[in-house]
Specification:
two-stranded antiparallel sheet; 1% strand; DNA binding; XRE family transcriptional regulator
Length: 482
């Protein structure tokens, strides 16, 4: 009777006689670098279905590991997810939900989770939607807590209605066409550089104040006019036009990325890199590198994001670090790198980047430098983002005792409250999370309404808040959460 020949489960080659595993050495080594693409029937196992229905990524991690044969270790799973083993263990143990949409998407992409199982993207839909909740007689008609806490901002901006959302989506094709003909712009008048500079400054003010509807009304025409100026002007003026075009493209990216046109955002950033080089401004490429991190956030490539930021910081002329614009460019890159490191679970590296950024604020008062806000208050907002990524209760508590000054751009202030809401929700502080989301809406309604983390947080609140007030239901309906 012949000996049974064992074969690799992945490539079907014969296994060596001393190989007790189910894969050959080459496939086993490759499988430690990335998660395998598993057959469809794998995802139908009862334990996995229960894990997805629990809407807990920790339960999904545990069920996913144990459903494979042999069981996948936490160390291997951590390598696939670009996390530490301790972070995987913490996520599996904790009862607090992970509400960061980008992290959930990145992890599910790494594990090749089928899209219909991703509850945070609309898979495994809720039994009740917001309208049904409104009709429920169990809803408490009065808010369970004040919508005006002592630490919330007092500025009352107009709330963004559906028309602003529609304006953005309608304008995207016009914006794409402006980029398509950047090297052969339409004929038309071309204003002076001073007038173009004032218009670009206004566009970036719209971006920083999260007035996206106003932004997209004017940007396509302005980009076309700057493209004409770049072709018609003399060499020195052409460099200034390239600098202005870079900032106009950045304003456009502020809309594209916020509304999840990731392909358009990546295209805009590539164009920004080209025009920034044409401008010969030594600090403008650093601002572009700060923005470029969005591309890596969208793809989940945190290693590349960290490398790109480190390289950009190394290229800044350190002899000029006592000058505010240079210090701001240097500090902003390290602020961003701290968030990248925190997303990867690298707390020590994140702390080092924050410390470096803290040195830079001594030379750079709070302000907007090459389109990026930097200074003491901006650094505190990034410190909160790091604490939220690392789920650091002490850091989150420190942030909760502070509020961003009204002089900060509205978009950045709303970022602070959105991050704080996510952090409070992770800690199980439902009322504080709701109050933060209301504060974010007051600060920058268009930015808040378009932010996926807001909808995700509100979806969690609708399921878990002990008292569904009318205010919470109003906010959820306004943001399109369910």
């Amino acid at each position: 009777m012949g000996t049974f020949k064992r074969r690799c489960r992945t490539c079907d080659t014969l296994l060596a006689s001393d190989n007790r595993g189910i894969q050959c050495g080459k496939c086993a080594a490759a499988s430690t670098l990335s998660a395998p693409a598993l057959p469809r029937e794998f995802w139908t196992q009862p334990a996995l279905r229960e894990a997805f229905e629990s809407r807990s990524i920790g339960e999904v991690f545990r069920a996913y590991r144990k459903a494979q044969n042999p069981t996948v270790s936490q160390t291997t799973l951590a390598a696939w997810l670009d996390l530490t083993q301790g972070r995987v263990s913490e996520i599996e143990r904790t009862r607090r939900p992970v509400t960061d949409l980008e992290r959930l998407e990145r992890w599910c992409n790494a594990l090749h989770v089928p899209h219909h199982l991703r509850w945070f993207n609309g898979g495994v839909r809720e039994v009740h939607d917001v309208q049904e909740l409104y009709a429920s007689r169990t809803v408490d008609p009065s808010p369970a807590f004040s919508t005006q806490p002592t630490w919330a901002p007092v500025d009352q901006g107009s709330t963004a209605g559906p028309q602003e959302l529609d304006i953005v989506h309608v304008a995207i094709p016009r914006l794409r066409r402006a980029l398509d003909i950047l090297d052969l712009p339409d004929d038309g008048p071309t204003r002076s550089l001073a007038e173009l500079r004032a218009d670009v400054a206004l566009m970036n003010e719209h971006r920083l104040e999260a007035r996206y509807g106003e932004l997209v009304r004017h940007l396509p025409g302005l980009i076309g006019e700057l493209a004409r100026a770049r072709q018609l002007l003399a060499a020195d003026d052409r460099r200034q036009a390239a600098s202005l075009l870079t900032l106009a493209l950045r304003a456009a990216d502020g809309v594209a990325y916020k509304y999840r046109y990731f392909d358009l955002s990546a295209r805009l950033i590539d164009l920004m890199r080209t025009t920034a080089q044409e401008s010969e401004d030594p600090l403008l490429p650093a601002a572009v590198s700060y923005v470029r991190t969005e591309t890596f956030f969208a793809s989940g490539d945190l290693h590349a994001a960290a490398r790109a930021l480190d390289l950009a910081a190394d290229q800044i002329p350190t002899r000029n670090l006592k000058q505010a614009p240079t210090a701001a460019a240097f500090g902003a890159l390290h602020m961003r790198a701290a968030v990248v490191a925190a997303r990867a679970g690298k707390a020590d590296i994140a702390a080092d980047h924050l410390l470096t950024a803290r040195y830079a604020i001594h030379a750079a008062p709070e302000g907007v430098y090459h389109g990026t806000a930097f200074g003491p208050a901006s650094l505190r907002i990034h410190e909160l983002a790091v604490a939220a990524e690392l789920r650091d209760p002490a850091g989150i508590q420190r942030a909760a005792t502070w509020q961003p000054p009204r002089e900060l751009p509205a978009e950045r202030r709303s970022h602070y409250y959105i991050d704080l809401a996510r952090a409070q929700l992770d800690l199980g502080h439902h009322e504080d999370a709701y109050v933060c989301l209301q504060a974010a809406r007051q600060a920058a309604p268009e930015h808040t309404r378009a932010h996926p983390q807001v909808r995700q947080a509100l979806s969690v609140l609708l399921r878990t808040h002990p008292s569904l007030s009318t205010g919470l239901l109003d906010l959820a309906a306004w943001a399109g959460a369910r």
